[in-house]
Amino acid sequence: MTQDFQSPSTSKTRGPLAGIKVLELGTLIAGPFCSRMLAEFGAEVIKIESPDGGDPIRQWRILKDGTSLWWYVQARNKKSVTLNMKEPRGQEIARKLALEADVIIENYRPGVLEKWGLGYEALKALNPATIMVRLSGYGQSGPMKDLPGFGAVGESMGGMRYISGHPDRPPVRIGISIGDSLAALHGVIGAMMALRHRDVTGGRGKGQGQMVDVALYEAVFNMMESLVPEYDHAGVIRERTGGALPGIVPSNTYTTGDGENIVIAGNGDAIFRRLMLAIGRDDMASDPQLARNDGRVPRTAEIDGAIQAWCHTQTIDQALAALKAADVPVSKIYSVRDMLSDPQFLARRMFEQHAFADGTPIKMPAITPKLSETPGETRWLGPALGEHTDEVLKELGYDDAEIMQLRQQRVV
After folding, report:
1. Which residues cross the membrane (predicted)?
2. Does 117 lie in the same domain as 88?
């Protein structure tokens, strides 16, 4: 029987990033998600948090005993160290950690780290191998660099919001922080490329580091496919098209007779023919004008109407069975409840079973991508605030008396 979860790994492998040290300076989503992925694949991630409550995401959305369930995922495998970054001694400790790190990930507004003496140029002067991933709303340059930029702003400025929703209604947002997450993934890619470059130019301490400058709006903009050349060459501004994929036909959301929503992607030429035969529209399957996508686009409404008319005669299960038998890409639109019982999710072991400190069991999403030889693993869930402060300070050479003094002075 296929298991529906995987337990924490007992493998001795520590992942492909074992030996890489990452310093995380930042809060909420983009920076922490970037470092989370590095932690999942073996990097030692030291997360700096304010002693006064820590990362705000600890209190976002659904809570257990005052801590966000999201936190346990977003901060898994990280070490939490509290530092008052407004205090010179806190900045001094952060600087020591930064100079030991292979990668520094930060998502403050441009200029904040410079104010604390922790900017890229200052650290690079002390360690030319410094790699700093900087995530911000608008990047480290340009007339808007000093403005606050959240994921919602990046999604709007980068083009995603304009094309999302139905043409007769205002733009909508996706119900997750997709702009921040896209920026985080660009940060991971940039960090990996910078590490590769550092290693081929001399390695840690000798190689050439660099700054990875990720703007949220640019990460979203990078997903916009052919938006720019379509406008520049043809004067076309892509508009909202609801559940359809514009200019690629048919690929849309339809409603079955029992009120369920189903996504059907029949836009490949051979797939389109199979789809039409499956829904009893042999006439459209053999229509030479519809044999290619460029011929189907002008008749989008007609094609969608034919598919919708057939869907109304089917239950969701009947429609899925018929279209899968015809080898047509199709899916029910999943809720999380659907995911937790789906054979594909279970076969791919997309859930991990863990437990909170009080023994309460909890499922977490498994780690992706899946590497055959050095897979990622969850070594521990998001830590308590400052859980690793003493451990990390001792590794820097601070003794118990010094750590106690730092606590008394509210530096940590």
Report:
1. none
2. yes
The answer to whether residues 92 and 173 belong to one domain is yes
| Burial category of 36 from C-beta neighbours within 10 Å (exposed 0-12, middle 13-18, buried 19 and up) | buried
Asked, for residue 228, whether it belongs to a domain, the answer is: no
Percentage, residues of the chain above pLDDT 70 = 97
Same domain membership, residue 299 and residue 177: no
State the alpha helices, DSSP H only, in 201-315: 216-221, 227-234, 269-278, 282-285, 293-296, 300-311
Of 180, 258, 283, 327, catalytic: 180
Tens digit of pLDDT for each residue in 302-318?
999 999 999 999 999 99
Q: What is the pLDDT of residues 273-305, one digit of tens each?
A: 999 999 999 999 999 999 999 999 999 999 999
Known catalytic residue at 180: yes
Contact indicator for 319, 262 with CB cutoff of 8 Å = yes
φ, ψ at 94 (rounded to 5°)? -60, -40
Residue 185 belongs to domain spanning: 21-223+348-408
Q: How far apart are CA 38 and CA 31, in angstroms?
A: 11
